[in-house]
Specification:
Helices cover 46% and strands 11% of the residues. The chain is built from 18 helices and ten strands.
Length: 383
């Protein structure tokens, strides 16, 4: 089962209270790191992040240092055994033993509460992953114990999502996964739009609202081909800051788009910017009662937006139903059946209301549909 960000935000506090390690699995660029940072911020925890893919055993365990036997764990154990009446090994007489000195990031996670974020775990070496295995299992490494309120997060690109096989990552065996609470993350388009609102160019947000299929590539990728992702849209917006204005398409925007998003998304976005003033949205129809004068391709594009939107999956109010019905009355036969199919797949009460909606001629919308599709094409407009 996959979870979106809204659901995940409701579940994470429960697991965090139990201090169980949390593993987020999903495609690159969907915002897994952002989820960890936002959740840590909500708890008031500083983030300690390490890329497991770049770590060696020394980066994880630390390096050995010489210490006095009098200060060693071995002496404490021997003293305890003797105090309990047992026979302990002989004390070290040479004077010094070695102990691992933890790296600074782990020492901090042991000394104070933090959100310890280990990214790209499935790209790490086997030796590093075995160390992380022990850390998640016992909250200890080389004799050092995490602070009781430190929370462990990990993230990987592998998992059960489409395209997982295209990542060059190591498989995580059942024992390794059993040390985590595992979430396969699949955020919705609205998750990203909510997160990006106010920080990403509004024209980009409008483009994604109207063309959600271009937010990211969900199918198996072709080798060496550039595809859009949630991360790449943010970076494209940063690089093109000041260039993107309604109606201002350019070769520069197209070139930047191709570099960040790939050819298909770049072409679609550049065309969208050029025709921005002509773009008709679902809100224009449902909320404003607009009856756009479009060619067949324009109607098909608008119908596709209705299909991808959640608006028809919920109950529409009386005014929204009236506006939708009046738009349906303007559709040519080539587009009418497609629109009716989209409506039929939505909220049942909307479908019932649309069937019985009275047209200006006094007929029902259902009968209008039958007449148009049978060839008696009488297009009605709102009086």
């Amino acid at each position: 089962m996959t979870v979106d960000f809204k659901t995940l935000s409701q579940i994470l506090p429960l697991i965090a209270d139990a201090k169980h390690p949390i593993l987020l699995r999903g495609r690159h660029g969907i915002g897994k790191s952002a989820v960890v940072y936002q959740f840590a911020q909500s708890l008031g925890l500083p983030i300690v992040e390490r890329r497991a893919s770049q770590m060696t055993e020394g980066d994880l365990l630390g390096l050995p240092e010489l210490i006095s036997y009098e200060d060693s764990v071995e002496k404490e154990i021997n003293d305890y055994i003797r105090a309990s009446g047992g026979e302990a090994p002989s004390d070290v007489k040479a004077g010094n033993v070695t102990s691992f000195c933890p790296p600074d990031w782990f020492a901090r996670a042991c000394a104070e509460p933090v959100a310890l974020f280990l990214d790209e775990v499935d790209r790490a070496t086997l030796e590093v992953r075995q160390g992380i295995f022990e850390l998640c299992d016992s909250r200890k490494l080389a004799g050092n114990t995490l602070h009781p309120d430190t929370i462990i997060f990990a993230a990987v690109n592998g998992g059960v999502h489409s395209g997982a096989a295209s990542y060059q990552v190591g498989e995580m065996d059942p024992a390794e996964l059993d040390r985590y609470t595992v979430f396969d993350v699949s955020p919705t388009v609205d998750d990203w739009l909510d997160w990006a609102n106010g920080s990403v160019n509004s024209v980009i947000l409008d483009f994604i609202r109207n063309n959600p299929e271009h937010l990211e590539h969900n199918d198996d990728p072709e080798p060496n081909k550039v595809y859009p992702s949630r991360r790449s849209w943010v970076r494209f917006g940063e690089a093109s800051d000041g260039l993107i204005e309604p109606g201002n398409s350019s070769q520069t925007i197209y070139a930047l788009g191709s570099a960040y998003l790939g050819f298909e998304a770049a072409v679609a976005f550049n065309d969208f910017v050029a025709d921005y003033s002509k773009i008709v949205t679902i809100e224009d129809v449902l909320d404003k009662g607009m009856l756009p004068e479009l060619d067949i391709n324009g109607h098909c594009n608008l119908i596709k937006k209705f299909e991808n939107s959640p608006r028809l999956a919920a109950a529409l109010n009386e005014k929204e139903l009236e506006n939708l019905a009046n738009y349906v009355l303007t559709l040519p036969s080539e587009a009418l059946m497609s629109m009716w199919s989209v409506i039929g797949a939505g909220f049942t009460d909307n479908v019932v209301a649309m069937h019985s909606f009275e047209t200006p001629s006094g007929d029902t919308l259902a009968n209008h549909l039958v007449r148009v599709l049978s060839g008696d094409d009488v297009t009605e407009a709102k009086v």
